Predict the structure.
Amino acid sequence: MGALPRPGLDEKLREILAICQKMNSERDLSVLLDLIAREATALLECDRASIFLLDRERNELLSKVALGSDEILRFDARMGIAGSAVMSGRSINVRDAYGDPRFYTAIDGQTGYRTRNVLAVAMRNQRGEIIGAFEALNKHVGAFTAWDEESLSALASHAAIAIETAQLVGELRRSQDELVEQNAHLWREVEIKYSSHGIIGTGPRIQQVVRLIERIRDSLVSVLITGESGTGKEMAAKAIHYTSQRARRPFVALNCAALPEALVESELFGIEKGVATGVQQRVGQFEKANGGTLFLDEIGDLSLPAQAKILRVLQERVLERVGGRNPLPVDVRVLAATNKDLESEIAKGSFREDLYYRIKVVRVHMPPLREIREEIPLLANHFLKDYCRETGHEAMEFSPSVLRRLAVAAWPGNVRQLRNEVMRLAACARTNAIGEEDLWEGVLAPAAEQPLPSGTGPTPAVSLKKAIEDLEKRMIQQAIDETRGNQQQAARHLGLSRQGLINKMKRYGIG
Ligand SMILES: Nc1ncnc2c1ncn2[C@@H]1O[C@H](COP(=O)(O)OP(=O)(O)OP(=O)(O)O)[C@@H](O)[C@H]1O
Ligand SMILES: [Mg+2]
């Protein structure tokens, strides 16, 4: 173009450059389309300019009806001059619109505008794919020139990039909004589930725990939670965390009993890269919980050297990664739980007294279920509702006699065992009313008939699991016999889906 003398060429080029800069800083697609149209109209000294975006899936062209409006015109991508530019990938300069067979008069009909002449160029993105057309209408004086054609093409290639960027940013914004919304929803769920109000129980023992948790919600004291297995120690720890000001910071639970001695330090405090060949940097649990809460579950099972290391972090509020040179400050609230009697562990010399006093600033004791039998019906109904909600099952209920039987059973595994038993009963029940015929004698033997030696832990998990499996096997066999092998019917009797029944039959080898 340098060969042809053109008046004001420099000025025009500068104008195009200025438009490109404006386009590149606009990220809102609707505003961007208006901006491009407005600037192109001024540059080409014409009546209007429009952008048509190609919807490849539907093979349609989309265009805004007017500047500032969000109303969209859609039409077949093969129609009109814009459509021809998109299909051919070339620019089209039409001096007399109504004399050109490609002109799509219906659009004038829809918009009430009278088109005299048209200049349309295809828009390509950086990968050379056509993403739409750029069209100018009605040159103020005469028809569009070859220079107009070049200007519009130059603008179109920049516009295409700006439009793609704005589309991408728009998509990212939408998906981010969605994530923010989902996240807020999850937080609400977590807070409802684990705030102290998720702790079920109306009697004095549980209410005492709830009130204690409420009372310490604004302080960051260390709390030691004691109680037998399955009494809700972890649930209490989460309630403490999720009612505190740290609710939206991390809650990290660490099972001390599962830590092999050799890994205690790197697991708790992390490890620096390259301590030994091939060692990658790892962030320890203390650091992961920074700003939040670290729950040291089964703290009574920590070795003495590990106890000493934890005590140091609690006292000095700094930690050192394995192989690290600089101490890192940490701000972690510590909650600990144990089913051991730490005072007798101290007497035996297997638990440090100084650590004990540091972690038990406040003590929460979770009572065993046999001591709060009055809560059993409430808990059982609560877990039954949980089951129905989680599985999408219609509402179920226990007969009063079942609730009475549940209330007098032994429950060596405490609330967790009750929860498991309710889930099993619900899964195996033949109707939505769970009656005595659904009970399993083994678990539900009254406490008196199954005296517990003092200080017993839970019955071993394997035997309970095995017993449940035996029962399930028997029930399935019985249902199959009763329905003479009709799986659909048998599944219905058992409250299972047909596939669920088939899976179980396979697992138990029932032919
Ligand atoms: N008062 C309660 N209200 C509602 N749910 C409870 C209550 N107590 C316990 N649970 C439920 O019982 C189950 C066991 O609780 P959790 O895991 O907190 O016990 P735990 O004391 O940590 O057991 P373990 O010593 O075996 O680790 C969980 O499903 C918990 O939600
Ligand atoms: Mg636990």
